[in-house]
Design brief:
This protein has 317 residues and is of the alpha/beta class. The chain has two domains: 62 residues, no CATH class; 246 residues, Rossmann fold. It is 37% helix and 23% strand. The strands form four sheets. The protein has a six-stranded mixed sheet with strand order 8-11-12-5-13-14, sandwiched between helices. The protein has a four-stranded antiparallel sheet with strand order 4-3-6-7, covered by helices on one side. Strands 1-2 form a two-stranded antiparallel sheet. A hairpin with a 2-residue loop joins strand 9 and strand 10. It starts with a helix and ends with a helix.
């Protein structure tokens, strides 16, 4: 319907500026394409005279190639760090799985499969009707996100704008919010230490920002996501939950996020990864759990996983 409206406006000689990361849309409706990178104009080309790979090269300054094959993964996966047993809420039923140190455990499924609801149950957002959560062999009681954080869990939610970031706050404040107790003495925040930590994270994660005081909402989607990752890294978590970590992010930033996720796993962090992009799930995960209507319908190793197998399990009754 939107494209029909755009076509009608074009026929009326209206000028349309259309901003999107979705290549298919760009090639379907545009006459010319302007590419920007890091706040600077790169090039403008006629749509019919370019292709997707050329645009990607302009967007990231290099040929993307097969980003997943370029990722370096350690073969060794450590001992169990998280176990959930029979988790049941209003949205999920009898969900059980185990996560080991250094493992990226992917969660695949169609919309409404219960993946996000599973993570919210683990993180204390949704109330459990039954089930158990074990961390490092110890049964824990998580009834709120504060409980989850104190037990060493971190969570980058699917909707980072409404559920992840503090829009009106600086990137420095968005990073330090989970460690304010550590930064405070007698009720006062050690601002120098807060700045030093933020500087380190900006450098380590290559966050592009004019300053530490820049409001996070003013950053690109990819840099917002890096700030969210930094928020949890400063708290030194045992398990990091990533729900659609590359949604709304351009292809260049995606490759950087993939590299960060891989490096975190290589350092021994246990990662629970939700993604609706099957190449992303297959390319990043060591093992994959497939869900449908709030229940687990299958488990695949990286070697077994194909898009066809995942979709078959995602639609399994």
């Amino acid at each position: 319907m939107l494209f029909k409206v755009i076509k009608k406006l074009k026929e009326e000689n209206k000028i349309i500026l259309y901003v999107s990361h979705r290549m298919r849309e760009i090639f379907e409706i545009s006459d010319t394409v302007a590419v920007l990178k890091d706040g600077e104009f790169v090039t403008k080309v006629k749509t019919e005279q370019t292709d997707e790979q050329q645009l990607i090269r302009h967007m990231i300054g290099r040929d993307l190639g097969d980003v997943f094959n370029k990722l370096t993964r350690e073969d060794s996966i450590g001992e169990e760090v998280l176990a959930v047993k029979g988790l049941t809420t209003d949205s999920i039923s009898d969900v059980s799985f185990r996560l080991r140190r250094g493992e990226i455990l992917g969660f695949a499924g169609l919309v409404g499969a219960g993946r996000t609801e599973t993570m919210k149950a683990i993180f204390g957002v949704d109330r459990l009707h039954s089930g158990e959560i074990w961390i490092e062999g110890r049964k824990v009681k998580i009834e709120s996100p504060a409980d989850a954080i104190s037990e060493g869990l971190g969570f980058c939610p699917e909707d980072r704008i409404s559920e992840g970031i503090f829009r009106s706050r600086s990137i420095k404040e968005n990073m330090s919010v989970v460690i304010l107790k550590l930064l405070s003495r007698n009720g006062f925040v050690d601002f120098k230490r807060e700045i030093d930590i933020a500087k380190d994270q900006v450098a380590n994660l290559q966050i592009k920002t004019p300053s530490l005081e820049t409001k996070i909402i003013e950053l690109s989607g990819g840099n917002q996501q890096k700030v969210l990752l930094a928020r949890w890294l400063v708290s030194n978590p045992k398990v990091l939950i990533l729900d659609e970590p590359t949604r709304g992010i351009d292809v260049g930033a995606k490759s950087e996020i993939y590299k960060l996720i891989t490096e975190l796993a290589n350092k021994g962090l246990g990662i629970l990864l939700i993604s609706s992009e099957l190449p992303e799930i297959i390319g990043l995960s060591d093992n994959i759990i497939v869900m449908r209507e709030g229940k687990i319908t299958g488990f695949l190793t990286k070697q077994e996983a194909t898009e066809e197998k995942i979709l078959t399990l995602a639609m399994k009754k």
